[in-house]
Amino acid sequence: GPLGFVAKAALKASEGSLGMSVEAQYTAPLDSVVAALSGADIDEDLHVRVLKGRKKRSDLLARIRSLNPGFASDDLTAFDRVATAEASGDLVGYWCFTMQDGNLYERGVAVAGSSRGQGIAGRLLLAAVLSMGTEVESARLMATSDLFNRASRRMLERCGLQLDGLMTRGRLPLMGEFHLMWRPPG
To answer: Is the CA virtual torsion 149, 151, 156, 157 positive or negative?
Structure first.
């Protein structure tokens, strides 16, 4: 309602001054993600691969930064899985994941502007999930998106994820860091 809109606008306006961010948290069982993504059209010219293991991969990091200059990681050793998509030898998308207790946590995705809307993110996610092998049946996926990034949230929903709640992180002067999680009722 109107009160919720005002609250969201106030949070968004305060991000710069308080160092606050509001993220939508999504989760889903991995088998339901596979079901949601199965049967998608496959572009024959798109080459998707998943790199396993925590390695620096300096050459790939440079290519990721050319696609997304704001990529925060200094190397790729923090990620157990890095899914990449290439078309005609050019990197057109990536999605990084961390494994924890048999579950998959997304840690950053980007698709080139000219390639958006073609299902590349879904292909990257499906390849990463399938790379887990037989663990899929009992595992879950967690992903987050900036609350105000509607395109990212729609993409996660098309991949079979459901909104689990809103997460607020920030820092208040003289009071330190805080973290709040609001879960939808029901």
So the answer is: positive
Helices (H) and strands (E) in the chain, counts: 5, 8
DSSP code at position 89: T
Q: Which of 136, 84, 80, 131 is nearest to 112 (CA)?
A: 84
Q: What is the pTM of this model?
A: 0.77
Return the pLDDT at 147. 85
The string over 41-73, giving b where at least 16 C-beta atoms fall within 10 Å of a residue's C-beta and e elsewhere, is eeeeebebebbeeeeebeebbeebeebbeebee
Cβ neighbours around 91 below 10 Å, total: 18
Average pLDDT, the chain: 81
Q: Give 135's contacts (C-beta < 8 A, 6+ positions apart).
A: 30, 102
- CA dist., res. 114 & res. 149, Å (int): 18
Q: Is the pLDDT of residue 4 over 80?
A: no
Residues 82-103 have a mean pLDDT of 91
